[in-house]
Amino acid sequence: PDLNVVDQDIPLSKNLNFRKIHNYLIILKKSLLFILKLCFSLFFPRERRFQSRTKMALPFCDIPEDLQLRILSFLSPAEISSFACTSKRYASLCREDGKIWHVMCDRKWGKKTQIQKWGSGRITYKLLYKTLNGLDNLIGFWRLCGRANPPDSSPPLVFFEWGSSFVLGSRVLAISDDTYQVRKTPFLEMGISSEGRSENFLDLDGNGRSGDEIDDDWRSNLVPVDVNFMGNGHIMVEENRFSREEHKSPVAKGSSSDESEDATSPPSFVVSEMYTQLANKTTSPRSDRRRQRKKEKERQARIKWEPEHFIKVSDFSPTVTKPLQGLWKGFSEGRNMELYMVKYDEVGGIICKKVEDLSLSRHTSPVFWTRNHAFARCPFSAEEELILDGRIHITPLPVEVCEEVVSGILYMNSSYDLAGRVWLYENGTFGFGFLRDQFIVDLKRVAFEDGCLADVLEA
Amino acid sequence: FHFLSRSQSNSLTTTRVLYKEIHNSTAHYFFRRISSLKLTKMSKKIVLKTSDGESFEIDDSIALQSETIAHLIGDDSASTSNGFPLANVTSNVLSTVIEYCKKHASVASEEELKKWDAEFVKVDDSTIFDLILAANYLNISGLLDLTCQTVADKIAACKDADEIRATFDIENDFTPEEEEELRRENQWSFQ
């Protein structure tokens, strides 16, 4: 009966009913949609996550080529080789020397050297990458091992750094006895010719080049050498008497008088030169040839530079755990500034030797050594204070003595078998002294942490 | 202001004389100094408009990390009021980029920044590529290098070409013989 009443009430109640149903339906629909959206958000992200594991949402192929190359520039050659095998498109991309090898060279060495200048810009970037990779090992400090040449033509310490289109090894020399500054003169220059051969020159006079211009006169004073990498941290530098100077016609050694004067060169040199002269009959003006002949004679008259071996100084800077390690400079007993090298050995001892001595023989005695590298820290005993008090710091005269705060004391021995002390200062440097005298030798670092030379005298 | 208010009660000529005094007086000098200081202290806000119509307002010290925006500011200062339209950047990508720029504009140690960067790039792959494109468009070198390095690390983590193809959805259009030959050639070429 109730329903009948409702049914009879057609116009308003019907609408109302429909209205209610409509409202309920809307609410139902909204809640259903809401639940569906929840399900969507639960399910689909999971799917997408699963998708991204196997497929990039924006594939590598879709980004512009220069960005693709930028990404590839971070990879090593081995990784690029596997990438190049993925598809024809990338194989051709990785084949283009000017693109892929260029960005790889730029990424690794773009900031250190001018990569487009190497080999006068005429070598492939692929060869450049290989060359620079090999030369990268040279950067840093190398010390002479053994000595085969007179002291002024074989420096005990060589510092290799990047130049604009070459790697330059410079002698690190003390200047005099009144300053901690060092002098840096060019010693060995390593570059690459435009044909791709490695070109290394010794600059025995240490004059270096003026700017980037290659001067003919300066060039003739250079000694061409080969640098052989004999394994980790060991190179051998050997004079190369048989290399031809480029941009010039081969040596004119036609006359027998030239051959007889040159007693130091072995017969094979004469034969090979004759062959090269016969094979490459280039037309050069007579005066030019005469000048070259004279220079060749001068060059051969010079005494041969014996092969030298250099060993890399692997740790040239102190660390937190090894505060004494590295290359140091200081004045001992008021003479010229000396360069010292302090090494920590495997059994926990420390040895300090002069860099000069390292090249002379294995059996020179160290400056000081100790078996135990643990420092005694503050507060120090009264006897230690007594030992430290009244000591005279050996410094060059213009430099004022500033008393550094001692943060640690180490007991050490010297070759005279008398004890001594190493005083570690708060600023990171240290000084040492023996009980037999009243001096302290204060040492400063030769190089900063980043590998740059400290206190270089500007030329 | 004190001088000026006083001068208002007097005649015009006196005002002029007083005004001249103000010019020469140190009080005016200080007033000018303070007012110029106020202008410089107020950092300029820059409005960026994304491709989907949203606007972002950021400090100019943060916005200048993008060389594109720096050039736009330099060239046309009149558009600062309307905001710079960035046609290729959507709003969620731009908010991520702004997050990066804010962190790198703040004072933080290098180690802290490196750690933050490592966490920052732990996003899904589509975001990384969007970031690469945005950083390239906006010319933000730090972000571009960071994101490219991340993708390069993903390539380096793959053992061989097959895995790279799977990760990056690259189609293999070689025959097995071609592939073998190419693999040998590349191994020799890239040793």
UniProtKB/TrEMBL annotation, chain A:
Pfam families: F-box-like. Residues 240-300 are annotated as: Disordered. The chain crosses the membrane at residues 21-44. Residues 57-104 form the F-box domain. Residues 240-249 have a biased composition (Basic and acidic residues). Residues 274-285 have a biased composition (Polar residues). Keywords: Membrane, Transmembrane, Transmembrane helix. This is F-box protein. It comes from Noccaea caerulescens (Alpine penny-cress).
TrEMBL record, chain B:
The keyword Mitochondrion does not apply. Keywords: Ubl conjugation pathway. Residues 142-188 form the SKP1 component dimerisation domain. GO terms for biological process: jasmonic acid mediated signaling pathway; protein ubiquitination; ubiquitin-dependent protein catabolic process. SUPFAM superfamilies: POZ domain, Skp1 dimerisation domain-like. The keyword Calcium does not apply. It comes from the Eukaryota. Pathway: Protein modification; protein ubiquitination. Signal peptide: none annotated. Residues 44-105 form the SKP1 component POZ domain. PANTHER family: SKP1. Belongs to the SKP1 family. This is SKP1-like protein 11. It comes from Noccaea caerulescens.
